[in-house]
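Instructor's aside before we start: the two examples that follow are unrelated to each other. I chose them only because their records fit on one page, so don't look for a connection. First example below.
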Amino acid sequence: MAKDVKEAGGAPAAATKDATYVLITPIQYNGERVTDIEYRRPKGRDVRKAFKVRNAGGDMYLALLEAICEQTQDLFDELDGTDYVALVSICDDFLEPPKPSKAA
């Protein structure tokens, strides 16, 4: 979720996330209105954990979303289906191997 973080003197703090997904259908979660979800690029440890969860019969996408968005499963359970599918698509983009350049 987006946070309005300020450093001393009122200047905005440096962003720690790579991107923000704006929800198509905002939700109420833990007494707050959630309109967007910040996420970062996954690290190797995030991907390894997601594949471990999948191999154990769990939801790989949910494990990856929890890691890159730094949110709990409960938040994702409350999202509109369209928003959840869009976030899963973001995970797919991260997991897709890079395409070779045409110049090569």
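Example two begins here.
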Amino acid sequence: HILREQGQLLRVLVVEDDETNRFYINHCLRQAGCEVLLAATADEARQFAKSHLLDIILMDLNLPDTDGISLTKELRLY
């Protein structure tokens, strides 16, 4: 398991619009012992970033409602 200093699971936000990719990434990260949050849109990603302490964000660069680089820059402010 991948743990933070306090013994908690590493919390990963996956921002991916393709359902198959989300499923596969979720499976791999959970197998590695991570806590996974899944977002299919920029709005969902914003909600998770505002309401959860995240360790890592895996970002799709080509989302239907925005590009991943702009969204990453925005989420870094939260």
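The longest helix spans residues 19-31.
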